[in-house]
Specification:
By secondary structure, the protein is α/β, with parallel strands linked by helices. The chain has a single domain, classed as 3-Layer(aba) Sandwich (Carbamate kinase). It has a nine-stranded mixed β-sheet, with helices on both faces.
Length: 246
């Protein structure tokens, strides 16, 4: 009897180096504020699984689960001081995720745009590149280090600096809609968009600065839901989920 032929080669990932942008709210889980340890562990497992597959992963995490700079301004606080407080919140989240990843056996580095040598390295592009070459997961904290810039802009900037193939923006919604799907049942989900369409429609995928950076550097953005943790791998392997902006 003729032996069966060996299975064909496994499908390769579409993206070999990615910048994963996770909102701070995602780390809060259902509690709405602070850090949910179970959620952080689940995210860490998903990220580590992709990393073990040979994909180089860097992350930017927001700080909205702890403090949002724009909210402080609404309460009468000086915008610059408020934004710096928000940047410090991202460092707390970065350390939480670093801890969860290292408990799984990953080698990680946190790099902060705001120098804080006791807990993180300063952001140095060449050092970040070297960490990725050595198969370490790099977590970028502190935003851009400047007020008036969002973590979306920080994600776009860092992705371009490290030569990422794409930005993967994990949210609580399964893509980009023409309106808020929670408020408008007729809201239309987009499978693909151009950068200009996202900007002109004011869809709030990312802020205009971040979108413009991505457009000028031809960096694709994939917006998808983090509620199913396997979605991170599915997006990297090219499954058509979420919304692709290019």
């Amino acid at each position: 009897m003729k032996a069966s032929s060996p299975a064909g080669p496994k499908k390769k990932p579409l993206y070999k180096k990615v910048l994963l942008k996770i909102s701070g709210e995602a780390l809060a889980g259902n509690q709405g504020y602070g850090i949910d340890a179970v959620v952080v562990q689940e995210i860490a497992k998903a990220v580590y699984g992709v990393h073990k597959s040979g994909v180089k992963v860097a992350l930017v995490i927001g700080g909205g689960n702890i403090y949002r700079g724009a909210d402080g301004e609404k309460m009468g606080m000086d915008r610059v001081s408020s934004d710096y407080m928000g940047m410090l919140a991202t460092l707390i989240n970065a350390l939480a995720l670093q801890n969860a990843l290292e408990k799984l056996g990953a080698f990680t580095r946190v790099q902060s745009a705001i120098e804080m040598s006791k807990v993180a390295e300063p952001f140095i592009r060449r050092r970040a590149m070297r960490h990725l070459e050595k198969n370490r997961i790099v977590i970028f904290a502190g935003g851009t280090g400047n007020p008036y810039f969002t973590t979306d802009t920080a994600a776009a900037l860092r992705a371009i600096e490290i030569g990422a193939d794409a930005i993967l923006k994990a949210t609580n919604v399964d893509g980009i809609y023409s309106a808020d799907p929670k408020k408008d049942p007729k809201a239309k989900k987009f499978k693909t968009l151009t950068y200009l369409e996202a900007i002109n429609r004011r869809l709030r995928v990312m802020d205009t600065t971040a979108l413009t950076l991505c457009m000028e550097n031809k960096l694709p953005i994939v917006v998808f839901s983090l509620k199913q943790k396997e979605n991170i791998k599915r997006v990297i392997w090219g499954e058509p989920i979420g919304t692709l902006v290019r």
